[in-house]
Amino acid sequence: MTSVNAGVLIGLDWGTTSLRAHLLDSDGQVLDRRSSAEGILADQKGGFAETFQRVTGGWFDVLPSVPVVASGMITSRNGWVETPYVSVPAGIDELASSLVPFDVSPSCTIHFVCGMDQDPPGGTPDIMRGEETQIVGCLSPGCSSLAKGAAGLFVMPGTHSKWISVCEGNLDRFDTYMTGEVFAVLKEHSILGRLMETGGGPMTGGFERGVSARLDSEASLLRHIFSSRTLALFDRLEPGEIADYLSGLLIGEEVRSAMRDFDGKDDGDSSVTIVGSGALTDRYRVALALAGITAAPAPEDAAARGHFSIARQAGLIDG
Amino acid sequence: MTSVNAGVLIGLDWGTTSLRAHLLDSDGQVLDRRSSAEGILADQKGGFAETFQRVTGGWFDVLPSVPVVASGMITSRNGWVETPYVSVPAGIDELASSLVPFDVSPSCTIHFVCGMDQDPPGGTPDIMRGEETQIVGCLSPGCSSLAKGAAGLFVMPGTHSKWISVCEGNLDRFDTYMTGEVFAVLKEHSILGRLMETGGGPMTGGFERGVSARLDSEASLLRHIFSSRTLALFDRLEPGEIADYLSGLLIGEEVRSAMRDFDGKDDGDSSVTIVGSGALTDRYRVALALAGITAAPAPEDAAARGHFSIARQAGLIDG
Fold first, then answer.
1. Distance in angstroms (rounded) separating the CA atoms of residues A25 and A6
2. Which portions of this protein are annotated as coiled-coil regions (chains A, B) (predicted)?
3. Which residues pair with residue B177 across a beta bridge?
């Protein structure tokens, strides 16, 4: 337990479908990690407090007064403690000064990170909870090219993908795309899923075909997605490729639109940092490459890095 | 039974979710009509033949040799008899000469209408089954402004909306928009439905708001639809208006895109014929008006009119 003894902070990245807990040392390094499928939509049998205590079990025996910072959908209306939003442009200073403390017990306080919102005149509002902390983590010391003061564009693939631009160290603008959820409901519940054969295998050539088709098309998405069915009916798309083709159409739409909106140009001379890991991240890397955009990987454990930076800025830990 | 005695043709408009049967006289007037929810996706306990005989029950007792023409998804792979496609541009001549006869019994033959397809070089294929017959019905004598030889643009609202242009009496081009199905799956299965209160009442102001918002926006649809959630979270959209707002966004997207694609201009100086009836048709009328486009109603019983025209052109009935 030597390593756990050196812990100075617990960070909770608590989202819709999962909870990730990190114990960090005074250099911001991850000493121990736990995870659970008990996202806020899961049945919390004993409530969020019991889940929190079970998932972080053991750490408090050794470190009874370790501070805790939490971010993600746990701060939403259906979460544990609803925090307000900090409006863009803003960054680590605003997030650190607006932490919402909540006493779980006389000896344990969780500091909840506020989500961020954006509400342009004449436009529609957008919101995020959790992604702001990951971006702060990407900008933390040690991630030199992305250090505070830097500018850049980030994508966070997911059920609701976020594109976030950073300017002078602040989150400047962000947009949510419902790409992952639209793909899931079309695949599971629409006629487009009827002809699909999905084996959970590696990404097929259907994905690149879909991305390329969408990058080249000005047709409405409501029309273009129907081609995943007609190409299959015409035997020009294999049953095992249809789902990947549809995924490619949607991710291609997202990449094209985001690059136009954020970059203001469509010449492919750009770089985007992909925050995340796993198969979905690979899809975005492929789609960005097809659009002529250089993709850079984000540092690992971005959320934990963000928790550490915010906690230090707020004076919860030394340094 | 006098009127039934005058029948010269049975027309079957047999789609995915319903079957409509019409008995027509020698002027193409509807003498009698039947309908059933036994579309091709319904469980056909005794098969399509038994459903056909039950729904048309009585007509054959009086008119044992009346000819039958059928169109719609009943001619698809999952239907009764799969017919090939006639490619655009084409019209009544090609549809009449390509009828697919099928003997239900020694005394009864159903003549199935071919669907139509479109497969532009470098584009993606599109298909329809049933709508071609309705368009022929809209062009039939008696619908003077739309008579054979006319040009025009038609929209057929539905699960899969079709936009169809007619030139010199032929169906010239058509595009399918998955508007209705995308709305249904987002409402039923995505996070966008969570905050919705839907009482099945009349269309709320949310619909016009959604149409107008979409007509004015260049944002990706994958992003714009998320505003049905955020506007509600920000108390700027009533729970009872959210579903209509989303419907407005999607129909607004369809109208804007189709007018650009078909009209080649975006000046609102256009007219579109809406084929169909009921509440969904009203939505399209409202959306077209907001886009500055004049909407004309199609003649009633367009499918039956189409069956009559095709049957006469094919020599199945005199005239």
1. 6
2. none
3. B161
Is the confidence at residue B317, as pLDDT, over 90? Answer: yes
Q: Is residue A49 part of a domain?
A: yes
CB of B191 less than 8 A from some CB of A: yes
- Distance from C-alpha of A174 to C-alpha of A164, rounded to nearest angstrom: 4
Three-state SS at A190: coil
Task: Give the residue among A297, A276, A280 at the shortest CA–CA distance from A130.
Answer: A276
Domain count, chain B: 2
Taking CB atoms and an 8 Å cutoff, what residues of chain A touch B222? 177-179, 182, 221, 250, 253-254, 257
Cβ neighbors of B143 (< 8 A, separation 6 or more) are: B137, B299, B305
**What percent of chain B stands above pLDDT 70?**
94
Q: Which two tokens stand for residue B37?
A: 């929810």
pLDDT for residue B176 is more than 60: yes
Domain that holds residue A43: 2-129+309-313
Q: How many CB atoms lie within 10 A of CB A124?
A: 21
Of B220, B236, B257, Cβ closest to residue A253: B220
CA distance B167 to B176: 18
Are residues A196 and A255 located together in one domain of the fold?
yes
Q: Are residues B118 and B45 in the same domain?
A: yes
Question: Are A291 and A185 members of one domain?
Answer: yes
Cβ–Cβ under 8 Å, residues B281 and B304: no
**What is the crossing angle of helices B279-290 and B242-258, to 10°?**
60
CB A284 within 8 A of CB A295: yes
Tokens of B304: 């039956």
Q: How far apart are the C-alpha atoms of A75 and B7, rounded to whole Å?
A: 69
Say which amino acid occupies A66. Answer: V
First to last CA, chain B: 24
ipTM over 0.85: yes
A with B: how many residue pairs have Cβ under 8 Å apart? 122
A264 to chain B, any CB pair closer than 8 A? The answer is no
Please count the other Cβ atoms lying within 10 Å of the Cβ belonging to residue B150: 15
Q: Are B287 and B309 contained in the same domain?
A: no
Q: Under an 8 A CB cutoff, do B226 and A177 touch? A: yes
Torsion-angle region of A130 (φ positive above 0: left; ψ -120 to 50: alpha; else: beta) = left
A196-252 pLDDT, tens digit each: 998 778 899 999 999 999 999 999 999 999 999 999 999 999 999 999 999 999 999
Mode of pairing for the β-strands spanning A271-274 and A294-297: parallel
Question: What does the DSSP 8-state code read for residue A33?
Answer: E
Judgement on whether residues A210 and A125 belong to the same structural domain of the protein: no
CA B56 to chain centre: 22
The answer to whether B23 and B33 are in contact (CB under 8 A) is yes
Q: Residue A111: helix, strand or coil by DSSP? A: strand
pLDDT of residue A265: 52
